[in-house]
Specification:
283 residues, 9-stranded mixed beta sheet, 9 helices, 9 strands, 18% strand, globular
C-alpha cells in the first residue's frame, strides 16, 4: 500500500476501536501503550497529514514474574466485553465495524527473549485466559519512553462520544521499534512513519534528536544499535530507507522522487546529529 490507498474513514474506525478498547480494559489502561502505524498521528497531532493506519498495535506491559493469573484473564475478558474476538494468530483480536474488521494486535517483550515474531503467553499457560502476545524485542522500552494524549471519538457500542487518555510511544522508542520493523519486514509504511515523525515532531528533526537524547532509554544498548541501524539505512538517497519513503509517498515524477529521498536523508541525518550532540555520544 502507498499514501493514496489510506483513507480517513479507515483511521477513524481504528481510533473509535481504540477508544472503546481502552475505555473497557479497567486497570489495564495504564499498562497499554500505542505503537505501530497509528502512533505517529498521536505523537505529532498538529501534523494532521499523517495517513493513519488500517490496524491498531499496542504493547502490553507485563511484570517480570508475569503477575497473578487472574490479571491476564481480566484483560481477555475485558477485550471480549469491548466487542473484540480473538482470532488467528492468537495475539490478534478483531471487531467488525461497518462490515470491516478492525484488527487489534497485542505486542510485548518476552522475559525469556528469543526470536522476534514468536507468540508467547504471559506466565506460560497458567492464566486460563488463552491470552498471548507477539514477542517484539525492545517493546518494553515504550513503558519508559512515552507521552500521553487525549483522544475523543464515538464509541463503537453506541454509548456516545468518549474521551480517554492514551499512552503513545515517544519519538525515541517509536523510532527504535519502527527501524527494527523496517529491518525485519521492509515495509514502505515503516520508513514513512519514521520520517514523518522526525520531520513533524515539535520544531523538527533537531528538536526530535534533543528530546530523544533526554529520554531515560537513550543509553540502552538496543537503542544504540537501532540508531546505528537507522543511520545506515538512511545514509544515502539510494539506500533502501529513503527509497521506501519515496515509494510510499507515490511520487508522480523523477524530480519528486528525488526530493522525497533527499528529504528522508536530511531528516534522519539532522535527528542523529542532534541526538549525538545533546547526548555527547557518537552514533
Amino acid at each position: 500500500m502507498n499514501f493514496n490507498e489510506y483513507d480517513e474513514e479507515t483511521t477513524t474506525r481504528c481510533r473509535r476501536a481504540l477508544v472503546t478498547f481502552l475505555g473497557d480494559v479497567g486497570f489495564w489502561h495504564d499498562r497499554v501503550y500505542l505503537v505501530g502505524g497509528l502512533a505517529p498521528g498521536f505523537l505529532v497531532p498538529e501534523a494532521s497529514a499523517h495517513v493513519g493506519s488500517a490496524d491498531i498495535d499496542v504493547v502490553v506491559s507485563i511484570s517480570v514474574d508475569g503477575g497473578p493469573p487472574d490479571t491476564y484473564y481480566t484483560l481477555a475478558t475485558n477485550l471480549v466485553r469491548a466487542g473484540f474476538t480473538q482470532s488467528e494468530p492468537s495475539f490478534r483480536w478483531t471487531r467488525n465495524v461497518g462490515n470491516v474488521d478492525v484488527v487489534l494486535e497485542l505486542l510485548g517483550e518476552s522475559p525469556d527473549g528469543g526470536q522476534p515474531g514468536r507468540v508467547f503467553h504471559p506466565r506460560d499457560e497458567r492464566t486460563g485466559s488463552g491470552l498471548s502476545l507477539l514477542h517484539i524485542p525492545g517493546a518494553a522500552l515504550v513503558s519508559r519512553d512515552y507521552i500521553e494524549r487525549e483522544v475523543e471519538e464515538e464509541r463503537l457500542d453506541g454509548g456516545g462520544r468518549s474521551r480517554i487518555t492514551v499512552r503513545v510511544a515517544n519519538i525515541l522508542s517509536l523510532t527504535v521499534l519502527k527501524v527494527r520493523a523496517f529491518q525485519e519486514r521492509h515495509k514502505n509504511k515503516d520508513a514513512y512513519d519514521i520520517v514523518f515523525s522526525i520531520l513533524n515532531f515539535a520544531e523538527g528533526p533537531e528538536e526530535a534528536g534533543r528530546v530523544a537524547a533526554r529520554s531515560e532509554i537513550a543509553n540502552d544498548e538496543m537503542v544504540v544499535q537501532a540508531l546505528a541501524l537507522l543511520g545506515r539505512r538512511f545514509k544515502e538517497v539510494d539506500d533502501d530507507g529513503p527509497a521506501a519513503y519515496a515509494n510510499f509517498m507515490a511520487p508522480e515524477s523523477r524530480d519528486e522522487d528525488a526530493r522525497r529521498r533527499l528529504e528522508a536523508v536530511v531528516a534522519v541525518e539532522q535527528f542523529l546529529q542532534s541526538f549525538a550532540t545533546a547526548s555527547g555520544r557518537e552514533i
